[in-house]
Amino acid sequence: MSDEVDHSRRRLLTAATVGTGAIGVAFAAVPFLASWKPSARAKALGAPVEVDASKLEAGQMLKVVWRGQPVFVVRRVQAVVDQLSGHDDMLADPKSEDSVQPDYIKSTGAVRARNPDYWVGLAVCTHLGCSPLGAFEPNNSFQVGGTDLGANWPGGFYCPCHGSKYDLSGRVFKSMPAPKNLTVPPYAIAANLRIAIGVDDAPKTVS
Amino acid sequence: MAAGPESAHTASGGGLLGWIDQRFPLSKLWREQASEYYAPKNFNFWYYFGVLSLVVLVNQLVTGIFLTMSYKPSAAEAFSSIEYIMRDVDGGWLIRYMHSTGASAFFIVIYLHMFRALLYGSARKPRELLWIFGCLIFLLLMAEAFMGYVLPWGNMSYWGAQVIVSLFGSLPWIGASLVEWIRGDYYIADATLNRFFALHVAALPLALVFLVIAHLMALHEVGSNNPDGIDIHKYNDEKGHPLDGVPFHPYYTVKDLVGVAFFLLLFCAVIFFAPTFGGLFLESPNFEPANPLQTPPHIAPVWYFTPFYAMLRAVPSFAGTQVWGVLVMGASVLIIFFLPWLDRSPVRSIRYRGPIYKVMLGIFAVSFIALAVCGLKPPAGIYPTLAKVCTVLYFSFFLLMPWYTKYERVKPVPERVTGHD
């Protein structure tokens, strides 16, 4: 056996030791990173919620909480529903191509709802997650938080954080900070106007 | 006085200190870091802010430790535990106001400390790593301040967290799951508050203290810059000490004490007479509990984030995503790291630079303040346009720097520091 140090052997052993150690650290990191994911309790609390929309008058709005997020349920007046497709040229994404909603909502076009009279959508601005306000009056005198919504305001939602404006189908206007239309969650409407938010199929129990 | 490693061990002689010195380099550390650390003798007003940030750091650590003793990091109890501290804990209001005012004071002294580096070229070679440690401290401080602001669980805490965490959601592909991972729930919830508490009181302060030590070690390795931006180690006396330097202790420790006393005077005035500072240091929507269903009518971050927030808002969404604003905001912080390599001037200090740098630095300072104002105001009227213009000016200062500093005519630099004989 020679007294000389075999450097290549030493380098190989060092690299192998470091490599093995790094793999060990990577595996050991998994439970720590995983502990930041929503816990089983948080997932259980994220279950669907049911809303009774039968007592809403035309022009009224309900705000309910689903998965901790505010959800709008708006009963639109007939005049608004009739005009919804009349201002497509002012919108950033009139056909909701780039926005988030179930396919059965996207296929309804300008209405963006399972029932044209009831619009359901997340009250979470697609810009940075603020909660937009309802600004339904279609005229130029309506003011929110000191901001004039301007002439030709067809009625809709206004986000007070950064000034994004949406129409009453939650579709965002052009040149707004928000890039997308308001998200529509999966929901289903039963015959007695009980709306289940978070599921695609109507609730089985009719009470 | 004899030199060499042997004398270092015997210099302090016997007694308790001698006993310690044979086992731990206490006297050696003191000599190297204070009594024989030679700092340039021409430090001016701008050189107070380093030591002041250390004072504020200690204030934040001490008051923070005492706040954790009465604070409850849960969504159900956080807000009421803050009210408990304010009303029922003896001295609690003072400790909390010291902590909340300290947060703003931290950014005031840090911004002035960084501006000093722009004035006198303190980031230039060989102080690049010192500058990078400082920038990392600034970055961590922003994370620390943001998470601390969430802890009272007021309505602005809640919606501020919502806005800032959503920033990560705009990243392509991984955005949505990354946001869910950060929150630990489908919304800003108890889990989010709890983990922000852990990071705010344990992980980030630990990293901050470590970086501050690295910052000081790097400083004492390369030596302090000075208002003339010249190397004081060129001319030494027969002992090898710089002619234009004085030992940090007692000369600067005593001078800094005066600065600290003056600072504490202002600091206490805010704590006792204007702890909310007109809604700038503590925002009024945060005096009501977090309400996930009610966004405050106007969301503005605390003042020290508003320049970066204004840049975020100044960029419109493009190609169906608003990631561009997030990227611009990230770049506005990261570009500061590159300062030592962007500056190509043959001189360090503004005293010997030409008019172009002075004008650019002035424009930069004004646009930074203008951005801070824009970030506080609702996005209406003149402010969106002003923010766009100032964002361009902010980046121009950095991105054009390699040219305007390289070709600018500079004045001759003196051999020795000026203003002293």
Question: Could you name the key traits of this structure?
Answer:
heterodimer; A: 207 residues; alpha+beta; three-stranded antiparallel β-sheet; 4 helices; 20% strand; elongated; B: 421 residues; mainly alpha; two-stranded antiparallel sheet; 17 helices; 2 strands; 1% strand
Short characterization:
By secondary structure, chain A is α+β, with helices and mostly antiparallel strands.
Taking the alpha carbons of the first and last residues of chain B, their distance comes to 27 Å
Quaternary structure of the protein? heterodimer
Average pLDDT level of chain B: 92
Overall shape of chain B: globular
* Strand count of chain B: 2
The number of helical elements of chain B comes to: 17
Q: Name the poorly predicted regions of chain A.
A: 139-146
- Largest beta sheet: strand ordering of chain B: 1-2
Strand content of chain B: under 5%
Q: What does it look like?
A:
The complex is a heterodimer of chains A (207) and B (421). With 207 residues, chain A is an alpha+beta fold. Chain A is 21% helix and 20% strand. Chain A has four helices and eleven strands; from the N terminus they run H-H-E-E-E-H-H-E-E-E-E-E-E-E-E. Chain A has a three-stranded antiparallel beta sheet with strand order 1-11-10, with no helix packed on it. In chain A, a hairpin with a 2-residue loop joins strand 6 and strand 7. Chain A is elongated, with a radius of gyration of 26 Å. Chain B is mainly α. Chain B has a two-stranded antiparallel ribbon with strand order 1-2. In chain B, helix 7 packs across helix 8 and helix 12 packs across helix 13. The longest helix of chain B has 33 residues. The N terminus of chain B is likely disordered. At the A-B interface, loops of A face helix 8 and helix 9 of B.
